[in-house]
């Protein structure tokens, strides 16, 4: 993967790339949106705790395809309030801490999810040879 960062636009204001170029023939994985619910059904309070679960779930899905965080080329995240952005971003940055080519990223504030206790949802695209 190659990060695309044209000098003619402002740099990203967080840990992401403006664009990503994928190599020809890459295998793709697309996850569904993951919510912050643990295997036992628990939904912790707070965006960071929920986002940690989202990213753990994403790692498990990627692992099933023999991929890891380094293969993620796009992250889409949804939070129910601007106040949840810092917690989400801490979890996202931890997920990407060992990644050399940062993925592109979209973060959207939404009115809610299927249950009121959910405050974050995350989905990714990944590619590998």
TrEMBL record:
Species, as recorded: Roseobacter insulae
PANTHER family in the record: BLR7761 PROTEIN (PTHR43857), YJGH FAMILY PROTEIN (PTHR43857:SF1)
Protein name according to UniProt: RidA family protein
Pfam family, one: Ribonuc_L-PSP
CDD domains, A to Z: YjgF_YER057c_UK114_family
InterPro entries the UniProt entry points to: YjgF/YER057c/UK114
